[in-house]
UniProtKB/TrEMBL annotation:
Residues 757-781 are annotated as: Disordered. Its main location: secreted. Disulfide bonds join C738-C747. It comes from Rhinopithecus bieti (Black snub-nosed monkey). Residues 1-23 form the signal peptide. This is von Willebrand factor A domain-containing protein 2.
């Protein structure tokens, strides 16, 4: 061990990572202007007589990756040059330990050739001898150039970390009339770039890493100096504040650490506290000014309406990023409108169950809706009410005709908290939500209540909902999935409910709401052929009063169809203590006769069996012998309270298998399992809360029937062939193959063995008329 130990200082070097996302140059302009700078760089074009020489740093300090980026910058500049022997000539040097001529200025006469040669340049590596390369040019000039007869431009792409002096040779080149651009790469040393560049230095120092910005800056300077006009007349060069950064090593005092000191005069080692330093890489900012060209863009005219954001695409294209309510239309123009005359009351849940966030979402929904839908010529009048313990009409219907005023009024509506008394609010909305107007009939606009909630009611809602609907209010609901079932009960139909799973999706319901406000169910399928049978539960569980409600509902539905033997035929079956055909499909050929017959249908009482009634329809109603028409869509509508349906699923499926659609309208607060099975795999089920609510589901039933009337049919289902004849599809029609002893188009005629053979055999449907004299009729018809 040596006699002494001398440790003057303990130094520990710590190098922090460089933040990868921090740009080395930043132009302080808006994102829109950054986009314009990028677009303008692609519009620039220089077609003057000029010699441009690229001097690319190929030293080890730059590295192969940054050398490739230098090449990319040079190629991008060439895209804007009219390269030819008479116009722009381009040459290239690579320098490191020594300068290397890649190709002289007179080597290539086309842009494609120059770009291809630059692309093939190979990184050499070595020391950074920038000064040596500049002296080479001072002594020999621009190789292949036109001397001083045309402007000479030198574009030096380097990291500015030369291992020799550069200021003097750079100054001498500039004194000879050469315009020098210093373009930084990797982590450039800006001081050296400034020493290399021509005056004014702010316009001649660039950064190759930001290739579009650097290209724009280079041609902006050339345009200002009249060397070449590189842009269209509408474009202009503007000064922008910008900031350049350099990466530096900084030593920081981090505290004291134990250390040991020795002496030549004594072998003793003394303990002491020595300073402790850390080193880290930091970016130092250098404010400056950047000159860039911008051209009029497609977004300058602000084409995006209603708060949309314009995003330029290419030279003259753009895209509008629209608010949700205006998405999908060009320029975010209002794609929605209320063409109908409607008084609209938004009913917002302001209770503690919805919370403040939910209340604010509901207010935002109303704001977006009125902005998207209302216009100067709109015939809609809007009001807003809130509820918790009681109803508060915050904005009376029709008070504001100006949309901005209406939107501002919404901002002042407070959140109230308290219990969620939705039922009470519905009743109050029906009584006083639309003011004291007494207009009736056609003079009164459609009145609609739109309920927005995310919490279940704490009071009973079914009665108040019926109360509101009885006063001819259309109820529409918008809410979260948690309240879907309750909203469907209140609105009386799932079609009147709009549900969102994520609060962010609430605004997506605006177009759907607009569609529901003015939609009116078209009056049936008046020109569509249909064989329709209503099957009514008249058992004791229903009762005479509810049966009368069903009769009224069926009469109202019948008015939506054109009843005659060529279009719509309607039959009616009732069941209770027995099953009875009130009237068959072909017995009421006019609408007047049909309406009278519906009113005369009997109430049977007793215990009913829906399964037996469906089999009755299968065997004795939906048959060719009883008036069903081959090739015509067929449907059965079952109205029942749910009792006696346990045996109905199999007969219903038997009808469906025979080409007959079956829809179940289940009445009552709860749907039984038997009703759900009866509805079948297509879930053909309409849930009605009470018999008095049937009329509110008429639109849904008519829509379903119209859809069934358009479904493709099988001419052999149900079979038009009687007496066990077989139906065979043939060339878009059908024929009946009859058993021995039967003949005719539908195997309806019996023959004796001595009859002529040509009178027997198979017959094609549609080729011979159905012989009406052979049809079996029931007594009294």
């Amino acid at each position: 061990m040596p006699p002494f130990l001398l440790l003057e200082t303990v130094c520990i070097f710590l190098f922090s990572r460089v933040p990868p996302s921090l740009p080395l140059q930043e132009v302080h302009v808006s994102r829109e202007t950054i986009g314009k700078i990028s677009v303008a760089s692609k519009m620039m074009w220089c077609s003057a007589a000029v010699d441009i020489l690229f001097l690319l740093d190929g030293s080890n300090s730059v590295g192969k990756g940054s050398f490739e980026r230098s090449k990319h910058f040079a190629i991008t500049v060439c895209d804007a040059l009219d390269i030819s022997t008479e116009r722009v000539r381009v040459g290239a040097f690579q320098f490191s330990s020594t300068p290397h001529l890649e190709f002289p200025l007179d080597s290539f006469s086309t842009q494609q050739e120059v770009k291809a040669k630059i692309k093939r340049m190979v990184f050499k590596g070595g020391r950074t001898e920038t000064g040596l390369a500049l002296k080479y040019l001072l002594n020999r000039g621009f190789p292949g150039g036109r001397n001083a007869s045309v402007p000479q431009i030198l574009v030096i792409v380097t990291d500015g970390k030369s291992q020799g002096h550069v200021a003097l040779p750079a100054k001498q080149l500039k004194e000879k009339g050469v315009t020098v651009f210093a373009v930084g790469v990797r982590f450039p040393r800006w001081e050296e770039l400034h020493a290399l560049a021509s005056e004014p230095r702010e316009q001649h120092v660039l950064l190759a890493e930001q290739v579009e910005d650097a290209t724009n800056g280079l041609f902006s300077t050339l345009s200002n100096s009249a060397i070449c006009s590189s842009t269209t007349p509408d474009c202009r060069v503007e000064a922008h504040p910008c900031e350049r950064r350099t990466l530096e090593m900084v030593r920081e005092f981090a505290g004291n650490a134990p250390c040991w000191r020795g002496s030549r005069r004594t072998p003793a080692v003394l303990a002491a506290h020595c300073p402790f330093y850390s080193w880290k890489r930091v970016f130092l900012a250098h404010p400056t000014t950047c000159y860039r060209t911008t051209c009029p863009g497609p977004c300058d005219s602000q084409p995006c309406q209603n708060g949309g954001t314009c995003v330029p695409e290419g030279l003259d294209g753009y895209q509008c990023l629209c608010p949700l309510a205006f998405g999908g239309e060009a320029n975010c123009a209002p794609k929605l409108s209320l063409e109908c005359r409607v008084d609209l009351l938004f009913l917002l849940d302001s209770s503690a169950g919805t919370t403040l966030d939910g209340f604010l979402r509901a207010k935002a929904f109303v704001k977006q809706f009125v902005q998207a839908v209302l216009s100067e010529d709109s015939r809609a009048r809007v009001g807003v009410a809130t509820y918790s313990r009681e109803l508060l009409v915050a904005v009376p219907v029709g008070e504001y005709q100006d949309v901005p005023d209406l939107v501002r009024s919404l901002d002042g509506i407070p959140f109230r908290g308290g219990p969620t008394l939705m039922g009470s609010a519905l009743r109050q909305a029906a009584d006083r939500g639309f003011g004291s107007a007494t207009r009736t009939g056609q003079d009164r606009p459609r009145r609609v209540v739109v309920l927005l909630t995310e919490s279940r009611s704490e009071d009973e809602v079914a009665g108040p909902a019926r109360y509101a609907r009885a006063r001819e209010l259309l109820l529409l609901g918008v809410g979260s999935e948690a309240v879907q079932a309750e909203l469907e009960e209140i609105m009386g139909s799932p079609k009147h409910v709009m549900v969102y799973s994520d609060p962010q999706d609430l605004l997506n319901q605006i177009p759907e709401l607009q569609g529901k406000l003015c939609s009116r169910q078209r009056p049936g399928c008046r020109t569509q052929a249909l064989d329709l049978v209503f099957m009514l539960d008249t058992s004791a569980s229903v009762g005479p009063e509810n049966f009368a409600q069903m009769q009224s509902f069926v009469r109202s539905c019948a008015l939506q169809f054109e009843v005659n033997p060529d279009v719509t035929q309607v039959g009616l079956v009732v069941y209770g203590s027995q099953v009875q055909t009130a009237f068959g499909l072909d017995t009421k050929p006019t609408q007047a006769a049909l309406l009278r017959a519906i009113s005369q249908a009997p109430y049977l009482g007793g215990v009913g069996s829906a399964g037996t009634a469906l089999l009755h329809i299968y065997d004795k109603v939906m048959t060719v012998q009883r008036g069903a028409r081959p090739g015509v869509p067929k449907a059965v509508v079952v109205l029942t309270g749910g009792r006696g349906t346990e045996d109905a699923a199999v007969p219903a499926q038997k009808l469906r298998n025979n080409g007959i659609s079956v829809l179940v309208m289940g009445v009552g607060p709860v749907l039984s399992e038997g009703l759900r099975r009866l509805a079948g795999p297509r879930d053909s089920l309409i849930h009605v809360a009470a018999y008095t609510d049937l009329r509110y589901h008429q639109d849904m039933l008519i829509e379903w029937l119209c859809g069934e009337a358009k479904r493709p049919v099988n001419l052999c289902k149900p079979s038009p062939c009687v007496n066990e004849g077989s139906c065979v599809l043939q060339n878009g029609s059908y024929r009946c193959e009859c058993r021995d002893g039967w003949e005719g188009p539908h195997c309806e005629n019996r023959f004796l063995r001595g009859d002529a053979p040509e009178a027997r055999g198979s017959h094609a449907g549609g080729q011979q008329p159905y012989p009406s004299q052979q049809l079996q009729r029931r007594p009294g018809h």
